[in-house]
Structures are given as structure tokens and as C-alpha cells.
Write a structure and sequence with these properties.
The protein has about 375 residues and is of the alpha/beta class. It has helices at about 10-20, 65-75, 90-100, 110-120, 180, 195-205, 215-230, 240-250, 260-265, 295-305, 310-320, 335, 345-350, 360-375; strands at about 40, 55-60, 80-85, 105, 125, 150-165, 190-195, 235, 255, 270-275, 280-290, 350-355. The longest helix is centred in the last third of the chain and has 15 residues, at about 360-375.
Length: about 375
């Protein structure tokens, strides 16, 4: 458990908040790069499927299961090499350091797609030219980060919400919002937070009636005060071991990403996932072509192959996620489809807010607020 600190923001944070009124609104999760260099690389043109060659993929762990790799290689004759990264910032740093060379396919999250487009580190190829583009669900076809789908396709959709044990906690005490979460009931015991500054600060902002990338200094002061009074109820703040702690009952209530929630719910059927009424973070990981790609035809072939729900269903089963493709959810096992972390209801989707990027100045405030909270 963290030590209790003073009921106030640090001087540095307070000074930063005072300057917020002059900061223009930008979006939210990764910072906006100050410098963009080089011209856009374009590979727009008629689609021609490759029938051999090689392809180098840079992705998140768990997003390219071995059976998917083997199936792709068998279907296309393309030899696939897969490397993994553990954060969008690590992906960005790699592409910046190499000019995008070394990899053909990369899988950035929503806000990072926008960032990499801004930095001219992705290839423009126009998704509409792909034969399977029509399989993308309507709600994923006009993302803020790639309006005309010229640089990326959606791959995995996930959410950040609250998991609680319905057997251990009375229905009257069940959380329904972030405001509830940061005012825990006695029946909950110590709770769990993700060790992620964006998730924690966004949840706190929403709990006080604001939202991501707030520009009102008072919103940050209110959120900081809320986190400060909550500290004594915090059991663990970590993004590791989340599913195990919730499934075992070590924590009865916790903030969780939907894929961790799915793993926990698979091990403990008494667990429930809540889309907070004041806003559940929604994030989409995508497939794009790196600026330095040497195998463009193979990259387009890979993307088009992944737009076939029959090919991609193994990815979603492995990642614990619903499908971004029409007909994809129907291919998942019934045991997955019945869980709201996989297929949310229409009402739950209303509470899902797509993660955006903030300006660098606003992200600095997120960092200072988070560091003050965990000190």
C-alpha cells in the first residue's frame, strides 16, 4: 500500500495547472510531436495479392498467435517474422530511430496512429482499395485518428472499466461509475488500480464530472483531491497480475483492462465487468505499414487477409476481445460472446469513450498529477 501524502497538489503541479487556461485543447493519450519531418510515403494503387516473399511485423505480445502465423504463411506463401513491443512510445521511438526501416507492419494504438501520421512514419495506402475492406464494422470506419482510413485498419478493441466480485459484494454496494469507485464501500476492502497514469487520471477526471484532456485547472485540482482522499483505500496499484488478483479474490474490486477482465472472469464466474456511467476508456489497436517497409505488396496482402473474419477469429480468441469485423463475433465461442467484455450491450457502448491524445503540455500535467498521487 502507498504512504499517505499531503492533501494538496505539489507546487509544481499547482503551477502547471495555473497555466492550463492558456493551453489549447488537443485530444489525449500520447503527446503531440513538435517536429514532423520528411514527405508522406504513398503506396496507393490497385491491390495485387503477393504470393511469396517475406514480411516483418512489429506488434503487441499475444496479437500474433502461432496458429495464425502458420495459417497466413500457408495461405499466402509469405514468410512471417514477428517481434513485439510493450508500449506505443517504444514503437514510436523505434520507428523514429530507424526512419521506419526494419519492419513492414506495425500495430499502433489509436492516438499513436495519429502521431505517426503526423511524423510521416506510416505509409499511405488507402484501405478502400483492399477487397476485404467492406468487412470492417461501420463504427470503426471513420476514426478520429485516420478519418479516411488511408493509413490503418482496426485490429483489436478494448475497454477500461471496473471489475467486482458479485458474490462477495451486495448488489446495493456494486460500483456503477468512477465516482463510486473512488468512494469505496466497506464491503470492498482494499481496491486495485492500474499502474497507468492515463487510466488513473482519466478516471479521476471523469469521477469529478470532467473528461480526458481537460483544460480547466479546477478539474485537475478536484481530481487530485479525490485521489488523495482515496489513497487509504488502495491495496495495489499495478498493471501486472491484475487478472490473478481479481480471480483469486485478493481484490474484490479493481480497475482493469477488458482483456485482463476476460481472463479473470474465465477463472471466476462471480466477477462482473462494469462500463462506468461517467465514461469507460475505449482504445483500438490498429494495423499500419511502416514508412521504411521493404515489402509493400506483402504488407497489403497481410492486411487484407486479416480483414477476413475467418482468418482473424483466432487472434480475438487469444486476445480476449470482440471483433472489429462484420460476422466476427459470431465466430467466437458462445462462452466468450455472452460476456460484456467481449460483446458490450448498446447501453454499455454509450459509456465507452475513445481514447485520444493530449498536447505535450497537458500530458506533462497528467505526469505530475500521477507522480504526486503515488508519492
Amino acid at each position: 500500500m502507498m504512504e499517505h501524502a499531503k492533501h494538496a497538489m505539489t507546487r509544481g503541479l499547482a503551477l502547471a495547472m495555473a497555466g492550463l487556461a492558456a493551453v489549447s485543447f488537443a485530444g489525449c493519450s500520447g503527446g503531440v510531436s513538435d517536429v514532423a519531418s520528411g514527405a508522406t510515403v504513398s503506396a496507393v494503387g490497385k491491390y495485387r495479392a503477393a504470393t511469396g516473399g517475406e514480411l516483418h511485423v512489429y506488434t503487441w505480445a499475444g496479437y500474433m498467435p502461432d496458429d495464425v502465423v502458420k495459417a497466413f504463411e500457408k495461405d499466402t506463401g509469405i514468410a512471417l517474422t514477428v517481434d513485439t513491443f510493450d508500449s506505443n512510445e517504444a514503437l514510436e521511438a523505434k520507428l523514429q530511430s530507424t526512419g521506419g526501416e526494419g519492419y513492414d507492419i506495425v500495430m499502433p494504438s489509436d492516438y499513436m496512429v495519429e502521431q505517426l501520421i503526423h511524423e510521416h512514419l506510416l505509409v499511405k495506402f488507402d484501405v478502400s482499395t483492399l477487397p476485404n475492406a467492406g468487412n470492417i464494422k461501420a463504427e470503426f470506419r471513420n476514426p478520429y485518428y485516420d478519418k479516411n482510413m488511408e493509413y490503418s485498419i482496426p485490429y483489436i478493441v478494448s475497454y477500461t472499466g471496473i471489475v467486482y466480485d458479485a458474490k462477495a459484494i451486495p448488489a446495493s454496494d456494486a460500483p456503477t461509475s468512477w465516482n463510486d469507485f473512488f468512494h469505496p464501500k466497506a464491503s470492498w476492502g482494499k481496491t486495485q488500480l492500474l499502474g497507468d497514469q492515463i487510466e488513473v487520471v482519466n478516471a479521476a477526471l471523469r469521477a469529478v464530472g470532467s473528461d480526458q484532456c481537460a483544460t480547466n485547472p479546477q478539474d485537475y485540482q478536484d481530481a487530485a483531491n479525490l485521489l488523495e482522499q482515496y489513497k487509504g483505500k488502495l491495496g495495489v496499484m499495478s498493471s501486472e497480475g491484475v487478472a490473478d488478483r481479481l480471480a483469486s479474490g485478493e481484490q474484490k474490486v479493481g480497475m482493469a483492462w477488458s482483456y485482463d477482465a476476460y481472463q479473470a472472469m474465465s477463472g471466476n464466474p462471480n466477477l462482473r465487468f462494469v462500463f462506468p456511467s461517467d465514461g469507460a476508456n475505449k482504445f483500438v489497436d490498429n494495423v499500419a505499414i511502416s514508412r521504411g517497409a521493404k515489402n509493400i505488396a506483402q504488407a497489403k496482402t497481410f492486411i487484407n487477409w486479416m480483414l477476413d473474419p475467418a482468418n482473424k477469429t483466432a487472434v480475438e480468441r487469444n486476445a480476449g476481445a470482440g471483433s472489429v469485423l462484420r460476422g466476427g463475433d459470431e465466430l467466437l465461442p458462445a462462452s466468450m460472446r455472452k460476456l460484456n467484455v467481449i460483446v458490450p450491450s448498446a447501453e454499455e457502448e454509450k459509456h465507452a469513450i475513445l481514447e485520444k491524445r493530449c498536447s505535450n503540455k497537458l500530458n506533462d500535467n497528467y505526469t505530475m498529477m500521477f507522480e504526486d498521487f503515488r508519492s
